[in-house]
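pls ignore typos typing on phone
zinc ion + seq
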Amino acid sequence: MTTTQDMRQAVHQIMPTVIDTLKQLVSIPSIATQGYPREQVLEAARTTEAQLKAAGFQQVRQLEELSGGYPAVYGEIDGPPGTPTVLLYAHYDVQPPGRAQEWNSPPFEPTERNGRLYGRGAADDKSGVVAHIATIQAFEGRPPVGIKIIIEGDEEFSSSLSTYIPQHPDLFKADIIIIGDHGNITVGQPTLTTTLRGYAELTVEVRTLTDQVHNGVFGGPVPDALVALCRMIATLHDKNGYISIRGLDPNQQQEKNTLVEIPEETFRKAAKLLPGVELIGNAALSAQLWTGYSANVIGLDAPATSDASNALIDRARARINLRVPAGQSAERALELLTQHLETVAPWHARVAISDSHASNGFVAKTDGLAYTPHLGRGGPGCLHSWPKRER
Ligand SMILES: [Zn+2]
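k done
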């Protein structure tokens, strides 16, 4: 039998190699976004392929036929007869590095500081790739279950898996899926994310005039479109910061007892909140984050301050994103948001809604083979109960 203690020891032993593997991947600027060098993304695909092979994966190959721009890397390990198959997912592409002056060390030179490794993709999601590889290494390439692994190459830009998977169902057939592409609540505390919110998103355009006119001449009685839009946006929350969209119940708290509370200080730091800025909404953080709605403005079309002139703005647009708790209909939330905006528009301003999208959230089953809240007690899904493989 493989015990938790065995695993701890095995992980401890391989850790230096695991960090080297991560550094090797982080050194490659695999930015799949258009306009960045293609060769470097392909180099990350080849490196990932080699790393999977070295860890003991079989039938490792690049899935070139993905319709997106870059290949996914795929591999398998057969399990002992009768054991379940686990599908592992991560991605090797990364976001562009952003502003150079905000990095304390170059984004593609992985750098250790205070026991942490810094570099673009060191967390999202090359740590996911390496965590999967390390798990297989800890089992010396012979895990007690069957494994399939898919490492995607353009997740950050335009994931093409949603069309590829239905065309190749056998490659992805599994009893359990583990997506290694999310964070831990705090350093050193492994976290299993079992629910993700969905979203409803739209663009709202407000017009009050047929053209811009001088605000010195017409300002006062004539409403400008941007003020009208701002007033509409202000109705999305009440004075405490709760969602106040007509028809949406802000207090969705299903499965509350399964939520893990996050220490406020840890959360404020992770959220990069400025000192003294208040958190909004009075419910517990976990409830707000995982079973509550949120409403945010994620884009705004209005004259830039550098182009500002003494004119009444005739039209303004905002992109509004609602996060919708799993179990609630994202389509319905989109309808309610649309109706709300049309209703609250002041002064009979013209409102047009466009580019609407909605996608439901997700809740994983938490009573199956894969989910054992107390690893080590020997429940049916626990590591203990699977036989150690013959070496
Ligand atoms: Zn990611």
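Residues 374-388 have pLDDT under 50 and may be disordered. The chain is about 30% helix and 20% strand. more later
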